[in-house]
Amino acid sequence: MDPYKYLNIRLNPDGSLTRNGEAKLLPPCPSGEPIAVTADGPAHRIVHSNDVPLNDANGTSVRLFVPGNDVGARDGSRLPLILYFHGGGYVLFRAASEPFHNTAATIAATVPAAVASVDYRLAPEHRLPAAFDDAADAVRWVRSYAAGSPGRPIFIMGSHSGASIAFRAALAAVDQGVELRGLILNQAHHSGVERTAAEQASVDDRVLPLPANDLLWELSLPLGADRDHEYCNPDAMLAGVSAARLRRLPPCLVLGRKKDPPRDRQRVLVAALREAGVHVEAKMDGAGFHAMELFKDNCAAEFNAQVADFVRRHAHAGDGVDEHVARSRL
Question: InterPro entries from the xrefs (predicted)?
Fold first, then answer.
């Protein structure tokens, strides 16, 4: 197969991409833009969204989703904040891309929580570690945002390549003294030079076929790097992170699917976290393929419920608030 054709992209002579096959880009959200979201069954809830500059020099921003008063967050200062990184192999999609915009809005309404979706720079125009540097900017933004409401529970979440960004953002957060209540890694995107069994079986995968997967890494990794680079292979990444540093991470929810090509690499990360003493809730046997929550309503509902349950259980853990009272505040 032609991976460029499959991904519907074209490499230009100047090294940039023409991206023809991306999901619909939604327009900028002016301050307080209301969005009707279906959550908790047929009921519609209102989420307000606006775009906030992150780093003007890099052209990055945060799309912030805040549930409206109808959600009933009785103690607004305690509403959880979820820093969210979308997927796309570091090459495709934006925070304003319809599937990820809708995911963030739905999570905001379902939990409920404030969700800050980071519009980070894309490769190959900005190869890794550009996205990781943008994540560090986002962590600094979170520190400033949270400073205005002490005690706000903070979570970091990412899907697909965004899960790998989220992992590095969480390390940056604990290094900077940000108290995290949880880390959510949904189908983290990893690979390596040596093929795993799952990768070998993914040549004709319906969502992430191996040639397309390889191309995404070729376009996103630093020039001259192979898939054993620390930005791609979790073994190399973890070799540079001490167990003591990992142990400072908060409870982690790690989600996977049975037919996801990176699933073997995801298990490497889970094992390393557990060995370091991190509390890990691993749910690796979800039905279906890579990123199914973007394509199937039942998978989306399952994903939203898993995230909401995790955030609700950990939002006030360890702060002396009775769990029943904490849930009523949410």
Answer: AB_hydrolase_3 (IPR013094), AB_hydrolase_fold (IPR029058), Carboxylest/Gibb_receptor (IPR050466)
- Band the pLDDT of 330: cuts 50, 70, 90: very low
Residue 247's SS3 state is coil
Q: Which residue has the tokens 């989600």?
A: 255
Cβ atoms within 10 Å of 129's Cβ, excluding its own: 16
**Nearest CA-CA partner of 184 in 156, 145, 203, 151:** 156
Question: And the tokens for 155?
Answer: 């979570």
d(CA 276, CA 62): 32
Report how far residue 295's alpha carbon sits from residue 207's, in angstroms, rounded to the nearest whole number: 10
Looking at the 3D structure of the chain, how many domains does it have? 1
Q: Among positive and negative, which fits the CA dihedral 139, 140, 142, 143? A: positive
Q: Does the pLDDT value for residue 23 go beyond 80?
A: no
Kindly report the pTM of this predicted structure.
Answer: 0.91
Write down the pLDDT at residue 39: 56
Angle of the 161-175 helix axis to the 130-147 helix axis, nearest 10:
50
Among 142, 263, 250, 111, which residue's Cα sits nearest to residue 199?
263
CATH number at residue 33: 3.40.50.1820
pLDDT in tens, 147-181: 777 889 999 999 999 999 999 999 999 999 999 99
**Full domain range(s) for residue 63:** 3-329
Handedness of CA 155, 158, 162, 166 (dihedral sign): positive
* Dist. CA 209–CA 108, nearest whole Å: 32
